[in-house]
Input
Amino acid sequence: MVDVAEPMTRDQLNWLLDESTPAVRHLALRQLLVKPADDPDVIEARRAAMVSDPIAAILAAQDPAGWWVKPGAGYSPKYRGTVWNLMFLEQMGADGGDPRIQTGCGYLLQYAQANNGGFAASGNLTDAAPPSRAIHCLNGNLLRSLIGFGLIDDERVQRSLAWQVAAITGEGMDRWYSLTPGPGFVCGANADRPCAWGAVKAVLALASVPAERRTPAVVRALEAGVEFLMSRNPAVADYPTASDSAKPSGSWFRLGFPSGYVADVLQVLEALCDAGAAGDPRLCATFDWLLAQRGPDGRWANRYAYEGKLVRNIDRPGLPSKWVTLRALRVLKARSEASAGA
Output
């Protein structure tokens, strides 16, 4: 196994802390150097990030009413509509206290939440609520985003959390729908088999609930998600697919940023580390795989950059990426700390 005792070099850290990319600098200060939110450097980096691209470009494309591209539930057009921009903004560390983000979150909660509490992949302005096509990947992404934006106490966010838990454990779920036809990450989009992409997003959302606020039901759902993701070697990613003969999607192995409904191997590690499993010996091969993706310059490339699909391009595909390198160093840091505390 490759040694992760020293999870980052000074060169890597200096690159991420460069003031030319304030959004990355802000997150590196918070996630790698563990600076508090009220640290002057953190405050200044976040302020600069909010007026710099890509965050500034995304916010500039928002309608004053809160939506992007067109009013309604916001799933389409894919990667440019309301739901996508809100989840991308949260991944970029945008300030949830900004009035534009608060307006966007309010719009999302008004038009994208189904009656059962989950976030739906369809709907329009004529619906009192979107059809109950809630799905793990979308609900997990948006739940994580809303919690990250400081809205965990909103009753509607709590309903989304309750749906996520029930859809995993089956406890209290009185009706199933086509996209969630049963518990345990079963997904209609995956031929009624458990969907690992959805599980990754759900675990990230549940892990974002502060430990002291996790109910026994949340803990059970989070544990179920961790065990499902650990049921395969994430470095192989041979999770259930729609066809018995299908190979794992190549998207698992193309590390990228930002992240939509697709998950990569690194995001499995992010979910498991956030859930407290960074030191699990079953992840040795996955951390080895991650380190093997590192370039000779100590940086990771963005191989899933959504080029031409976003409001603004973030990275050039295949080139070293501050965003992907930050993601990798964060999980390596968690692994190193877990190993040191073992």
In short: Residues 90 and 322 are 17 Å apart (CA to CA). The first helix runs from residue 10 to 16. Strands lie at 186-187, 193-194. Confidence is low (pLDDT under 50) at residues 1-5.
